[in-house]
Structure formats: C-alpha cells, structure tokens
Amino acid sequence: MAYKSLLTIAASPEGVPATVTAAAQLAQAMDAHLDALAVGVDRTQIGYSYVGSGAVVIAAAMDRAEAEAREAEAALNAAIGAQTPSLRSSVESVVTQLGALTDVVATRARYSDLVVLPLPYGKSRGVEDEAMTEAALFEGMAPVLIVPPSGMRTAVPKRIIVAWNQSREALVAARRAMPFLKRAELVQIVVVDPPAHGPERSDPGGLLCQLLVRHGVKAEVSVLARTLPRVSEVLARQVRDVDAELLVMGAYGHSRFREAILGGATRDMLERADVPVFLAH
C-alpha cells in the first residue's frame, strides 16, 4: 500500500523548497512519480471602469500572472533539480483567473494519490493558497499533506497522531493515511473530551484502533481532557509531548456561495502547525 502519483502546486516561489523536498522524499520512499504544477493567477475583478480601460487592465493582469507562473516554475525546477537524479518528475505551468483556479487544481488533484502543499496561511500567503488547498480537498477529493516551513523530518514518520472525533471526515482521513500509518512505529489515536452519551462512550476510539491493528498498524488510544480553550491547542500540545512527526485529521469546511471554506478546527490547526498535517475530507 503506497502513494504512486504525487502532486505539488505552487503559485509563487514561497515555500517551494521545503514542499518539493518533502514530496520528493515521499516519491523516493514509495517509488512514486511527482508532478509539479506552477500556477499564475489573474486576480482581476473588472467592475466599473473608464471606457476603454478594461482591456488595458486585463492585459496588465495577464502579464503579471504569466510572470508569476514563470517564477513559480523556475522555483519548482530548481527545487526538483536539487533532488536525487533518480526522482521521476514532471513540471508544467498554467495561467488562470482566480475564479477558475478551483477547477484547474481539482482536475489535477482527482488523478493524484496525494497532493503536497505548503501552509496556506501566513504573512506571505495569498488568497490563492487557501483556494488551492480547498480545491484539492473538497473538489479534487484528494488527501492533502500540508508541509510547514520547517519541512518534513522524514518521509516515513515513526510517530503519528490521528485526531479522532467519530466523524466521517476523521474516518476518511485515517483510511487515506494508511500508507503512512502502516509504516509507523507508533500511531496514537487522540480523542479529546469524548461525549458522555456518544456511540463510543464506553470505548472512545476503540473501533478505529481495532480497524487499524487488523491492518498491521501499531495503534493505541489516548483520551485527553480539553484543558485548553481550543481542541487544536490540545492536539498541538500532544504532538509536541510525544514528538510526533505527522498529524492526521479530517478536513472540515462549510459552503459559502458554493465555495468551500476551511472550518475553524482545520484552520486553527493549520495556522499553528509545526509538523506536517495530513488532511482528507
């Protein structure tokens, strides 16, 4: 069980080295092919303007988008070129309007086993970074590995935390992360403040643990009290306490004008992520 087709996408040179290095390490470890896509985004929103000015604005925006695509492509080529020569990879570039970005990313993500992306939030990140993450998860139906600026310590994480709340998203994430889980030395299923009257009240996380163990995963359950204001803070502390190298969790969102918006728990975790975060919806 392994990921055989990996995809990484860049809309700017920011974060490319760490993300490509992580994706390349994974590709080597799992004998996979790495596809890299450079995206130039036209963010123009033409509304009221002086007569004749619209074409000039559009042309300037497209020139800027093409320049950004070339910069991202150069960064991807440089990062891939720094990897081992045996890496199987390809690099393409595309220019699109912001409104069509979801379709561009989703189309590529649907035919990938895993999409590897940088953190979508931060001072240097743009609206397109969150849009690409959402497109891969919600429209592309692909699992996404979010790589922090510090990179990925190892392509085969030895200690993994699975955030479990009995939801469909959390179960999908656990199933999609199986290639990682089966290779780990310890998988800790973390349950934060399980409901007293829920379906798993007598054995929180027990059924998931049983499922994983039957697949050969070295899994255990840890039930934690919510001693911090946010669940994401409890998870982040547990990641540090056990020195975990990967966090697996469901991706939550809600629809706003038919666009997926990453929900509170997911966004909170990504904003504070110090280790790679594996997401699935």
Describe it for me?
The chain has 9 helices and 12 strands. The chain is of the alpha/beta class. Helix 3 crosses helix 4 and helix 8 (231-241) packs parallel to helix 9. It starts with a strand and ends with a strand.
Number of helices: 9
Q: Biggest sheet: strands side by side, in what order?
A: 3-2-1-4-5-12-9-6-7-8
Average pLDDT over all residues: 91
Sheet with most strands = 10 strands, mixed
Measured as a percent range, the helix fraction is 25-40%
From the structure above, extract its key features.
12 strands; 9 helices; alpha/beta; 281 residues; ten-stranded mixed beta sheet; 25% strand; 38% helix; two-stranded antiparallel ribbon
